[in-house]
Write a structure and sequence with these properties.
homodimer; about 325 residues; alpha/beta; 5-stranded parallel β-sheet; 4-stranded parallel β-sheet
Chain lengths: ~325, ~325
């Protein structure tokens, strides 16, 4: 896991260097009329998809949905996906239900793009075009370099389809920012001490950062055998906050932008409930900082890396092997 | 909460009696061309929306998405929702971000249906048409009768738009099945004893039943101040299962149908990990039964009622007031 985390700046640079050809490939797939986008994914890829969902809807204005695979793999419902760009995301390209769902949605009119690490996978074969992540073998069970590459891939796809809330220069700066975060492992290691006695925790964020909260929670679950769940701040206020009592550990992800006022007030509210809040990013002297000047829409890439560091440090501190979580394997069949 | 739970058979009967007019109203709204459906909701209404998402996609074959309100309320992205039926769901019809999101999506071409208990609410005013649930005032903070009415409303809307996986006769039988479940409170009360020492738990289901798992988890969180999270069985296998260790409490919702083989094997897997699994529904001598003969696509209504009973019984057993959870109010502004 540590080795694959360390590769991220180089792998993201290589992907960003292919920006022009990726954009051309995406544009060649756009159906006409173009009525919406559907993303097919599970696990960490699904968290990248949540990020992609915000970014793609911001860029196109069109409704973006996350597929419910069981409709196609178990219930066999009739589908009409004409006008849809269907983006299927899987590290291995081998998860059977993702492959099958992409196949059904393409055979019912969707134009399929596979985002995968293996350009010769079943998923790639089921798609019209392949965006190969080319980040190399991933051996640790918890996905790391693939996830940040998937986030950057969504940033590239969105920039091919419309206006995005970040500049090309900012996108090109991402690998450097990731390197700066990786070079500063002490902040996350120190912060993870506050979570050592937790029997469960939540990770909360809003808007573009929401997918990073889901992914950070999953990394902690996978590596630490600890129940951790991700929430949007809005969803947390709609009921779940009732479960936040004295000492309850919460990791809050923040980034300057339109969603941050809501996060700032939520952190105050959680502290008023005597929750134990660990803040990652944002302007108010966070426990774990993110690089300054990162646009909010790209901050999730850095927050995900912070989440990897937190999960890894906590797992080691708790005596777990983060590379081989008990009872998990690399490809999941459901 | 108890009083409102007890009203459910009568309120659902009244709603089902209006089936023909509801269907006519829905059909009058369908845009041409009709390219997809978007649902806007938060909290319990969002869990009804997850159920609706499966049912509406099964009925129409079109992509169904759940809106990300912050895109419209915080980021102000340009939207193009021509061809979309937009269904906004809110008990009070007063949640500002739901009202605002519906307004934006309608002003960008969507045809808006408000599903609400208050036909004179802001949400109703923002919509083209209103499906009034008319279940009467809801005074307890945890929503109960509104949620089952929302599920039935989605069943009616789906049946207006295409073929649904249940008969009219089965839909008409729902209030009687709900009554049978309510008359058999002892099963849930006894089962809740197994959860008394839990500091956290998960609720798991698949396919049509997934929304009921999310809602059951929320009811437990709200009433018992206990971290409970809902998962689809497929998502659980993609990593989170690593957090399920010896004695970990899991509530599994089952119903005979195409998704049940997956649930049955998951229950076996969880028990092999020495989890403490409480089974609701399904054919294998469940701890808490659901009525026999309920079609899978309607079973979520009954499972939600079982979840209400479990949450209420556990809250009382733990000394909480289920009607007034600490720090929650009826309308949430985010």
């Amino acid at each position: 896991m540590a080795g694959e985390m360390a590769e991220q700046p180089a792998r993201l640079s290589e992907l960003i260097a292919r920006a022009d050809s990726v954009r051309a490939l995406v544009r060649s797939l756009v159906p006409s009329p173009f009525t919406g986008i559907t993303i097919v994914a599970r696990g960490s890829s699904d968290h990248a998809a949540v990020y992609g969902r915000y970014l793609l809807e911001a860029a196109t204005g069109l409704p973006v949905s996350l597929a419910a695979p069981s409709l196609h793999t178990l219930y066999g419902v009739r589908a009409d996906y004409r006008g849809q760009l269907v983006i299927a995301v899987s590290q291995s390209g081998a998860t059977p239900e993702i492959v099958e769902t992409l196949r059904v949605l393409c055979s019912s009119g969707g134009r399929g793009l596979a985002v995968t690490n293996d350009a010769s996978s079943d998923l790639a074969a089921a798609a019209s075009e392949v965006l190969a992540l080319d980040v190399g073998d991933e051996r640790a069970v918890p996905a790391t370099k693939t996830v940040t590459a998937q986030l950057v891939a969504f940033a590239l796809v969105a920039s091919a389809l419309g206006e995005v809330p970040f500049s090309s220069a900012a996108l090109s700066a991402v690998p450097g920012w990731v390197e700066a975060v990786l070079d500063d492992g002490a902040a996350a290691r120190d912060a993870s001490e506050a979570l050592v006695d937790a029997s469960h925790l939540i990770v909360v964020a809003r808007g573009f950062m929401y997918g990073a909260a889901l992914e950070t929670a999953l990394k902690i679950k996978e590596t630490c055998s600890l129940l951790a769940d991700g929430y949007s701040s809005a969803d947390l206020r709609h009921g779940p906050i009732a479960a936040v009592t004295r000492g309850f550990p919460v990791v809050a992800l923040r980034a300057a932008g339109p969603a941050d006022a809501d996060m700032a007030s939520l952190v105050d509210e959680l502290r008023a409930r005597d929750a134990s809040v660990l803040v990652v990013g944002g302007p108010d002297a966070p426990d774990v900082p993110l690089p300054a000047d990162v646009p909010e829409a790209l901050a999730p890439v850095l927050a995900v890396v912070r989440g990897q560091q937190l999960a890894q440090a906590l797992a080691l501190r708790l005596g777990h092997d983060p590379d081989h979580p008990e009872g998990l394997s690399k490809v999941t069949a459901t």
